[in-house]
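Readers of this paper often ask what the protein records in our data store actually look like. Nothing more is needed to write down the fold, since each code stands for a local backbone conformation. Below, we set out a record of this kind in full and without editing:
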Amino acid sequence: MTPMLDPLAVVFLILMIICAISVLSVRDLLTSVTVFGTFSFFSATYFAILGAVDVAFTEAAVGAGISTCLLYTSDAADE
């Protein structure tokens, strides 16, 4: 018997797939960075649902926090 995923986990997986496709299809760099930060937030929430709280905190801090801020700063410096 195969284990079932939590329905909430499936929702966040679908949201992550939508964000990944959006990042690749968006032309504007600022919008792409925003969607990438949203993807990192959904990823951190997914890890928390699975019970990997330490990985979720790391993803939230590094992925959604620091990386997004650095990408915004580099975009502002580029202009």
Summary: The two ends are 56 Å apart (CA to CA). The first helix runs from residue 7 to 25. DSSP finds three helices and no strands in the chain.
